[in-house]
Amino acid sequence: MSKVIKFLQGNEACVEGALMAGMRFYSGYPITPSTEIAELSSEKLPKVGGKFIQMEDEIAGIAAAIGASLTGKKAMTATSGPGFSLKQENIGYAAIAEIPLVVVNVQRGGPSTGLPTSPGQGDVMQAKWGTHGDHPVICLTPDSVKETFDLTIRAFNLAEKYRTPVILLTDEITGHMREKIEIPEVSELEIYDRVMPEKGADYKAYRLDEGDLVPKMAPFGSGFRYHVTGLMHDETGFPSNSTENADVLIKRLMGKIEANKEDIITYEAYETDDAEYLILSYGGTARTAKAAVKKLRAEGIKVGLFRLITVWPFPEEQVRALSEQVKDILVAELNFGQIKLEVERVVKGNANVRLCGKANGEILTPEELMKAFKEVL
Amino acid sequence: MSDQLELRLSGSGGQGLITAGIILAEAAIRDQKNAIQTQSYGPEARGGASKAEVIISNEAIDFPKVTIPNMTFALTQVAANKYISDVSEEGTVIVDDSIELPEGIVAKHIYKLPIIEAARNDVGKEIVANIIALGVIVGLTKIVTEESLEAAIMARIPKGTETLNQMALQKGYELANQSK
Question: Gene3D superfamilies, per this entry (chain A) (predicted)?
Answer without folding.
Answer: 3.40.50.920, 3.40.50.970
